[in-house]
Amino acid sequence: MIERIHVKNILILVVLSYFFFIFGNSFLSLTDPDEVFYTQTAKEMMQHKTWMTPILFDQPQFEKPIFTYWMLRLGFIFFGVTNFGARFFPAFFALLGVVAVYVLGVLGFRDARKAFLSSLILASSGLYVGLARTVFTDMFFSVLILFSLVSFFWGYINRDRKTLSFLLFFIFAGFAVLAKGPLGLLIVLATILLFLIIQKNVRFILCREFLFGFIVFLLVALPWYLLMIKMYGASFNQEFFYNDHWRRVIEAEHAKNDTWYFYPASAIGCMFPWSLFVVGALFFLKTRMTKGGLPLDSFLVSCVVSVFLVFQFAHSKLVSYIFPAIPALALIAGNFIAENLKNKTMGRFFKIAVFVTLGILFLIPVILLVAGSRFAQYISYKPSVYIMMVVSFLVFLSVLIFVLKKDIFKSLMALSGFLPLMFLTAVVAARPNFEPYVSSKYSGMYLNELEDVKGAIVCTKFFARGVRFYTDKPVAILEIRGKQFFSPHPIPFLETEQKAKDFLRQQPVSYGVLKKSVARDLEKILNPEFKCDVLEVFGNEYLVKIERR
Questions:
Q1: Helix 383-402 to helix 408-434 angle, to the nearest 10 degrees?
Q2: Are 234 and 287 in contact (CB under 8 A)?
Q3: Which of 23, 218, 231, 527 is 20 to 30 Å from 197 by CA-CA measure?
């Protein structure tokens, strides 16, 4: 199958991925509350000179395994503790994921055009672009799962590569377990088992190669977990296995998400601008499989079903949890689109999907321009930016009308590729107004310039990690009648008026980074013993100074 993988296509995908995922990653500061959580953990690991124990607020924290922090530390080594350094490896893994989808498409479809189209769909899908440009565990986790599944499928259709196939399958599964936990193994095993059941070939894994691969998996995945259990014992088991795995199964961290339709709706929505094509592709795939179909069809269905079954019955639901299914959906959609384009008379649903999606894409630049005037507090643009966006959109529209008018789908592909760059332009242009609402950088810079910031900075829960990252100072959470973090942090949590007063009495002067409502209530709560002044406002962060009278 190597002769079917065109180097030219891969080079095009690499270049596009650079612009979609990597270019401009330094423009926006690291955001609250998650990007700074992962980045600060890696930063404190550097400060404590450890590669094995995740550390936050100067204490071990086990909310996630070690792989993400290894990648972040490597990013810091290459690029420094910067926005780009933190975001480089998630973006780089996204690029590798696009190439992996191309390889899987060539192996399974035996059609480089379908494979290339599927890769473009993945590279321009909303959730994929979003997670490629932010610091989360999900891109690492999902791409490692993808590598594992591609390795297996390669061996399934090339039996002379079976030994190497199983070896790679389990190595990547081992790293997936190091990226997010045991689900890394569960998802890939469930996928291949369901696939082999459909193919009526379960005996394929009953072999020495599979057993040997599993032993290698244990050698990759287990040592870090055994080390943490040896070093931290019950505290690691309680936090990692109970709180961050089992508790999320039985308890909803975000109660509004705990519905049966959350994941199906999220998966379709997160494939935008290809959402309608995904819906059509799923019905097309059902018909295709009843007529036999290709082994890859069953493989992709097995992946999507396995991911949904693993996460559907857990009460804690987040959009990013079903991210491992997105590459499979991109391949399913790519096949559907390619088959429609082969026919001179396209299906009615396909035509409707093309025109509706084109209409939405044409409206997006208009929406961005209107938003710049309607919500100037958050995303104000300079006049030059308005002119640039209008001119670029008119030029682009002219190209579509005069050059691509005979191929409406090429117009759709071109617009989809234009979309991530349009959003990047909008974000960069709106950054001076927008950034203070998503990052604690400005509050941190202000506090760093003050000489009398001696004790812990009191923060609203949402801002605590960011303030810690940008100041390197101790923090305390001030949330009167508030709830702890789902995974409690080893810092003071002041949820009652008495606790707040007792804590503030220990410091002659205290500074706080608080929400507007908390800042207003604080003055009432602390009177007449304390004086509370608002020094500055950055976005939705109120920076206050608290002194004993």
A1: 170
A2: no
A3: 218
